[in-house]
Automatic annotation (TrEMBL):
The chain crosses the membrane at residues 240-259. It is a multi-pass membrane protein. Keywords: Cell membrane, Membrane, Transmembrane, Transmembrane helix. Residues 17-86 form the Polysaccharide chain length determinant N-terminal domain. It is found in: Cell membrane. Coiled coil: none annotated. InterPro entries: Bact_polysacc_biosynth/exp, LPS_length_determ_N. One of its GO terms (molecular function) is protein tyrosine kinase activity. It comes from Polaromonas vacuolata. This is Polysaccharide chain length determinant N-terminal domain-containing protein.
Length: 287
């Protein structure tokens, strides 16, 4: 009987060291006030801070452009001239103001309408609108082909216009011959086919002219659907969301603190744990 009793001691020791669901619930119940009051206090402080933040205003512009233009909006090639033009880097470096400005610029290209929506935030409606206008003006300049690229496009445009004119003139002469009663049936059929081919050549040349003209013009004011707006009201900050997020984060940290403190208390009461801690300190050379 004594042997059986001794054999159950290790199991009893293990059961004493296990953390049950009741232990967790007990720990939460004993620290409920700290958990609730601490989390609510963090939420209230965050809510109070959100009311002290400066108001921001948004200017919105819509233009016919693709994702490439949207990506170009936040590059140094666009932002640096805007910063210099508006004098935004009086007391700070250009790099700092550039990074700050990137955070205030939002772009979105519609999947169906392919329209680029530009949204700029600033501390005043006038500043937001001025930044949006300056961004668009810089985009217009950068989208226009320059140098050898522009010369090549202009040359192609001249050739396309010449083909369109020549095809139109020849087609007009053939049409007069087709309308003449002196043309034989065989000759009429050949001239009709030639006339159709000339019309096709003229149509292709006209389409190429349109494409080349668009490429030469780039993104310009003609593609502007909505000019940058002048906001009359400040944007609504997400104060409630900020407060709720603060409550959740504070709750998480408080839970970690409570369970870590409870674990340390259990370790202090456990002689085996005390011995292990002493050995760890000795191994690390700690007193």
């Amino acid at each position: 009987m004594e042997k059986n009793h001794n054999s159950t001691l290790p199991f009893a020791h293990v059961e004493q060291n296990e953390v049950s669901l009741l232990d967790i619930l007990l720990t939460l119940a004993e620290n409920a006030k700290l958990l609730i009051i601490g989390s609510l206090l963090a939420g209230l402080i965050t809510l109070g801070i959100s009311y002290t933040l400066p108001q921001t205003f948004e200017s919105v512009a819509v233009i016919q452009a693709d994702q490439t233009t949207a990506s170009l909006m936040t590059t140094a090639a666009v932002l640096d001239p805007v910063i210099a033009q508006l004098g935004l880097s009086k007391d700070e470096s250009v790099e700092f103001v550039r990074n700050l400005l990137r955070q205030k610029i939002k772009t979105a290209v519609g999947r169906n309408d392919k329209l680029l929506t530009l949204t700029v935030s600033a501390l005043s409606p006038e500043q937001a609108q001025a930044i949006a206008l300056a961004l668009l003006q810089q985009i217009y300049l950068l989208n226009r082909p320059q140098g050898s690229v522009r010369a090549r496009l202009e040359s192609q445009l001249i050739d396309a216009q010449a083909r369109f004119t020549d095809a139109g003139n020849v087609a007009a002469n053939l049409r007069k011959k087709l309308e003449s009663s002196s043309v034989t049936a065989v000759s009429s059929n050949d001239q009709a086919r030639g006339y159709a081919e000339l019309l096709n050549v003229a149509a292709l040349a006209k389409n190429q002219i349109s494409v080349l003209q668009v490429q030469l013009e780039g993104v310009n004011e003609a593609q502007l659907v909505q000019s940058p707006t002048l906001a009359s009201n400040a944007t609504q900050s997400k104060k409630a969301l900020m407060a709720v997020s603060a409550v959740l984060v504070a709750s998480l940290f408080l839970l970690l603190f409570i369970f870590m403190r409870q674990t340390l208390r259990r370790m202090v009461k456990d002689t085996d744990a005390i011995g292990k801690l002493a050995r760890i300190r000795s191994a690390l050379g700690l007193k």
